[in-house]
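Memo to structure team: turn this sequence into structure tokens by end of day. - J.P.
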Amino acid sequence: GTISNYGTLTQSSFKVKCAIFNAVNTRVYLDSTTAPTISAGQSAPVTFPATFNPTTAGNFTIKIWSELLGDASAANDTSIAAFTVNNIALVGGTETRLQFNGTTGYIEVANKSSVKPVTNFTVETWVLGNNALLNPGCIYSSDSSNADTSITIETIGRRIGVTLRTSNGLFFLTSNDTIPTNNWAHVAVKYDGAELTIYVNGDTAGTIAATGNVLYKNSPVYIGRRSGSKSTAGISVLNGGLDEFRIWNIARTQTQIIENMHRKIANFSEPNLVAYYRMNESTGSASVSDASGNCNSGDLVNLDPNTQWFTGSVMLDTTTATIFNITTNNLQTSTKHQIGVKAENIVGTGSFAVYSALQPIIGTLPTGFTNNSTRTWMLYKYGDLTFDSVRVELGVPSGSILASSTNNDLALNGRLMGFGAWTNTRNSAASFQRITNNFKVNFLLLNTDSFNKQFVVSSNSNSLPVKLIAFNASKENKHIILKWTTAFEANNKGFEVERSIDGKNFRYIGFVKGNGSSNQLNNYQFIDESTKDVTVYYRLKQIDMDGKFEYSNIVNINADDFGSIELVEVSPNPFDAELQVKVATSSDKAIKLALYNANGKLVMDRSVGASFGSNIIAIEEANTLAKGLYILKVSQNGVIKTFKIVK
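Reply from structure team:
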């Protein structure tokens, strides 16, 4: 509130009280503060330390009064105002977003000085880009028209454009970075009286020198359209979604922006947050509530409240990000986000920012899995940092995955910016162990698939009586050896081994007894001595004690030539200008070599003739290869040997 001294004497250190009453005149808030020194004819702001946290929506009355001793007109010292709480947006509620229609729909916020910072400001929001964003679409606008503007933030060809009018002139800025198609991007615009800066997903996307006070006119603030004549006929009207829209009366630092992109701010907890629209309203709501406590709610205009609210938004939680400065390849950990990161073969400087949310997945679930971790993670990279790979160590809450899981049961699934369909990033964990009440799971990620993604650990349950974790076929001593491993067995009678020459029609060739019930790893083997076929297929028929059965996956092997690779040596490793591969083989079939870089791109593919015994193959391309991690695959007769090499 504001206290004014209408007397002739300077007043200081007197008490000011504030009370709020609900619609039935029950007092729901009371606090007091001490006023500063106020000269005659002057005014001063007062702030009450306690926050008002209503539990229900409705109409309220606020009263502020002074307790000045010896006041001759005490009855005139009470200020009374009425306000309405339209909606209670609680932290941790259902996450929704508001979708703008791209034609005439927008949000209008009443013209108030509190929502129009003059010297410093930050406007930030999450934008869900549609294909239609290729045309200009306004995100935020104040006092804007064809010829003039105070502040306008809009999309221009998938880039962010800002127009700013101050007492020192008109300033224009367009971002270097673009926002994605049909996915989320965090956009922040900051002005500190010296520079105007755009951030996309926390990364600096453009900055110019700009000075002066922002010049405002007497008009509302618009979200989703440009004010003035350019707002008609769908021009500069946003076609996309918005979530977590915030207006600050300070210039937030880049670190503050990064730390809070995925953070849900508590009601009325930030003094410099002048407007905060969580967009968490539900179907039927024709307004957006202001969680900043400044009563700057907005009204939906030309947006159908029954069709424009959608479930599903960016990943959000109540904690700030942890930022790791990456200078060495040491493991760095965050307890609050239950994550550790370790980059290998670092070049340049930069940082990682990590977030997590302890809540069920919002939107679609990864397909093909029965269990998903109740904690998910977001990982960002900043700076010119490059590396070969990054190891992530994830703390998965107990109950999310089964204690009987193995490395091969676990997968890491990811989706860009925490929205849309999940894709498999890694189909097996590097390691897995139980620590007290949670699990520690490690995955190795390449540089290209690690960032701006939401990750979840997924697994499959032991719904079958036998959990088969490996089944393969190999050629040894003119025979085919079948080997398989189980991690869990319940009433397992054993395995019938079946063979086929076409992969469709199978016949019984033998039986291997099971281990009944077991929680240990069990290894099995079967030797097929009779096959003469070119290509042969095998499957297992696992049989329970009660006669129920399940088939395994099918494996196949080329049986026409049992000679194959026996030994491969790659030297030197690491290599520089020269690299050679030594292959010992009992076959004269061609040896194939394929070399892939760290991004999975094939950079060499060669087939060379072989002879019985030792073969030395020089890799002439070694001298021209860029420094980094490579994967070399050496194959003959269907047998593949894989090596990780570094230049």
